[in-house]
Amino acid sequence: MAWFLFISVLSVVALAVSLLLKLRGGSPRGPGGPPPHLPALPIIGSLLSLRSADPPHLLFQRLQEKYGPTYSLMMGAHKVIVVNHHLHAKEVLLKKSKIFAGRARSVTTDLLTRGGKDIAFGDYSPTWRLHRKMVHGALCMFGEGSASIENIVCQESRALCSTVSEAASRGVPLDLSPELTRAVTNVVCSLCFSSSYDRDDPEFCSMLRYSQGIVDTVAKDSLVDLFPWLQIFPNADLRLLKECVAARDRLLHRKYEEHKADYSDQVQRDLLDALLRAKRSAENHNTAEAAGLSDDHLVMTVGDIFGAGVETTTTVLKWAVAYLIHYPQVQTRIQEELDGRLGLDRTPQLRDRGRLPYLEATIREVLRIRPVAPLLIPHVALADTSIGNFKVSKGDRVIVNLWSLHHDQQEWGNPDTFDPGRFLDEEGVSPVLPSPSYLPFGAGVRVCLGESLAKMELFLFLSWTLQRFSFSVPAGRPPPSLDGKFGVVLQPAKYEVHATPRPGWET
Ligand code: STR
Q1: Does ligand 1 have an atom closer than 6 angstroms to the CB of 118?
Q2: Given a cut of 80, is residue 438 above it in pLDDT?
Q3: Distance from the CA of 122 to the center of ligand 1, in angstroms?
Q4: Angle 463-320-300 (CA atoms, 0-180°, nearest 5)?
Q5: 466: Cβ below 6 Å to ligand 1?
Q6: Are 58 and 77 in contact (CB under 8 A)?
Q7: What percent of the chain has pLDDT over 90?
Q8: Pick from 330, 262, 295, 289: which is nearest to 470 by CA?
């Protein structure tokens, strides 16, 4: 409350100053100049134009009507360019990937990552590149292609199905969220630490709690991120974030120390072993990049893999089930495809992926209509450059509004309709990409590292559960809300499902 008052007082002061200074902005600029910009005041920047009941991705999409697809605004003292069209998005992410590879520091992400020692929020540097290469290598070794990860996902799918089956037999509505989270967490746990959790494991419960706390508070462009000096005021969000990060760090440290203690060059049990080995080998080569790579870097990386691996995949699965409940005809068509291609006597495997195009198209459509990270993570220009005809200065922040790309009327015709068919060719037999305005995993030097692992998990978890169950709204309940809750990931609101075993899978 105190800081809210403070901000209000500041707005009034800033308003007065602006009357003297003449309002900057509000007008489009010609080619070669800066992008059109929202009005901005000293100190508070464009905050007054950004007040809205809509979440940022919708507001930024709507502002295009007035300012065009690429425009800029001031967040506090920082210039932010918002990109809403795929051509400019690809210029930023692909064509000028390295120029736009920077990251801004913020109070909340600094807390989460010890000042950017991770990959997702860490700034671009030679050490960052080496670090990312190591993680990429380790993920390739243990990710897609390794039989063990398929086995782990199938084992978790089986456990998930038995929980659903139990709820179905008792006829009670089920909140799938903790069940999906546990399944996905166990995949990441096996991958990183070769361990997994039972349903009521206290460590797992604490993990659920702190992860949600972090998602609720980190990197939301909250006021303390805009005005770091606001930290001097009591702030409930910041306190929650600190507690959650401390709980996460205790767990990560314990795992890290355990792995270091039983490390051997001969056996690589999991991703953390692979990272330890890569770090040692880089150190033996004595490069400057490797010298910058501390224990903290490895711990923060595991934190990233965990956070990214769990929150994103779980969120997509929850959206998928919510949409399938709203569109039962899509659910039925997936099930007919499963019955026709697999029969009723075996469970899905990864190699069935090519034979289930409608399921593949549905996964693509879910990732389009509800992108996990609607604004990606903001990028920073590392040098003076341009986007289209617009000048961009070193240090400018760039937000790629993936939501706008995925809901572009010109590209998708009816962007708000859930229609997996748009991702199939005319015969309806093979998956296609109907528009270039589609980047669910981002692109370029910062493209998602977990893309193939995620696709594999989405395919297996959905095919296993849909083969056995039909999901619907429990009697007397409203259908799941399709509005997301905005944050680093766009999460669906909590909902419950009614699961019915399909014919042939009653036992
Ligand atoms: C989720 C909560 C947590 O415990 C740790 C992290 C750190 C990595 C974050 C993750 C978060 C949310 C999703 C992110 C991921 C890095 C890449 C991913 C932001 C905050 C996306 O870009 C979608």
Answers
A1: no
A2: yes
A3: 12
A4: 95
A5: no
A6: no
A7: 65
A8: 330
pLDDT, tens digit, for every residue of 442-470?
Answer: 999 999 999 999 999 999 999 999 999 99
Compute the CA torsion angle 102, 107, 111, 115 (nearest 10 deg).
40
One-letter amino acid of 498: H
Q: Does the pLDDT at position 354 exceed 60?
A: yes
The C-alpha atoms of residue 425 and residue 253 are separated, in whole angstroms, by 49
- Decide whether any atom of ligand 1 lies within 6 Å of the 301 Cβ: no
Tokens of 311: 């929150």
Going from the N-terminus, what domains does the chain have, and what CATH number goes with each?
2-501 (1.10.630.10)
H-run or E-run covering 72? strand 70-75
Give the annotated binding-site residues for heme: 448
User: Is residue 372 a contact partner of residue 489, using CB atoms and an 8 Å limit?
Assistant: yes
**Span 284-305, pLDDT tens digits:** 887 777 777 888 999 999 999 9
208 vs 212: CA distance, rounded Å:
6
Distance CA 61, CA 84 (A): 7
Query: Is residue 361 over pLDDT 60?
Result: yes
Which residues in 143-152 are b (16+ Cβ under 10 Å) and which e? beeeeebbeb
Q: Which atom of ligand 1 is nearest to the CA of 376?
A: 22
Is residue 232's pLDDT more than 80? Answer: no
Instruction: Give the ligand 1 atom nearest the CA of 219.
Output: 20
The finding on whether 302 has its CB within 6 A of some atom of ligand 1 is: no
- In the reported structure, the alpha carbon of residue 304 is separated from the centroid of ligand 1 by a whole-number distance in angstroms of 6
pTM, entire model: 0.92
Lateral strand order in the sheet of 70-75: 70-75, 78-83, 397-400, 379-380
User: Cα separation of 197 and 264, whole Å?
Assistant: 25
DSSP state of 58: H
Residue 241 has a CB neighbour count (10 Å cut-off) of: 23
